[in-house]
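Customer escalation, tier 2.

The customer says the design service returned an amino acid string that "doesn't look like it belongs to this structure." They asked us to rerun it and document both sides in this ticket. The original structure tokens are below, unchanged.
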């Protein structure tokens, strides 16, 4: 039987305590929350549909890997999962003004860019490799990164991350599954990123 997986298996599951849906949080109202990705807008899975939890206001109960400590209380987030070891996460922050949003997007990009090094320092049994897949021309811009981790107990997982901005709104999207960089759906994830940023305010 296949088990629905919402946390990043990698040592990421241990590091971030998974990414279970924060059911106890208060859902964000449609009036004050940006539009989030729909399940069908994520990179297609070959054998399973995508599912999604509610858009939820506030910091995630289980902070997402790489950027969790940087997320403010004004965040809104949504969890996604398939019937197999593939999951995704989106968090969006609406800042008071465009300058603050620009600074926050830069902070998230730095957190993602430094993530592999920090993971290895914090987890001696982990090997982590990062890739920068470059900029995407959409609204005020977005950038895509990749991360491959291998644990000393044998797990191998790959994640893709993006940070994008439209005006005073910033979004972070993560996709993850078992595998290596060869299994990363980079082209599809870039399309997902464009959609995510286009849906912001």
């Amino acid at each position: 039987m296949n088990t629905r997986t919402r946390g990043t298996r990698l040592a990421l599951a241990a590091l971030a305590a998974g990414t279970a849906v924060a059911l106890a949080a208060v859902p964000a109202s449609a009036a004050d929350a940006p539009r989030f990705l729909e399940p069908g807008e994520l990179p297609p899975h070959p054998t399973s549909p995508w599912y999604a939890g509610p858009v939820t206001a506030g910091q995630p109960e289980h902070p997402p890997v790489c950027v969790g400590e940087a997320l403010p209380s004004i965040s809104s987030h949504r969890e996604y999962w398939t019937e197999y070891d593939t999951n995704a996460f989106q968090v969006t922050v609406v800042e008071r003004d465009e300058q603050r949003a620009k600074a926050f997007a830069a902070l998230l990009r730095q957190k993602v860019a430094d993530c592999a090094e920090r993971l290895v320092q914090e987890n001696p049994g982990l090997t982590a490799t990062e890739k920068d897949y470059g900029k995407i021309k959409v609204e005020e811009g977005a950038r895509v990164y990749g991360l491959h981790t291998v644990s000393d107990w044998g797990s191998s997982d790959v994640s893709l991350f993006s940070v994008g901005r439209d005006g005073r709104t910033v979004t972070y999207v993560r996709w993850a599954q078992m595998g290596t960089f060869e299994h990363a759906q980079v082209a599809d994830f870039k399309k997902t990123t464009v959609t995510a940023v286009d849906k912001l305010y």
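Tier 2 assessment: The sequence is consistent with the input. The radius of gyration is 16 Å. The helical segments are 10-16, 98-113, 115-122, 186-198. Sent an explanation to the customer and offered a walkthrough call.
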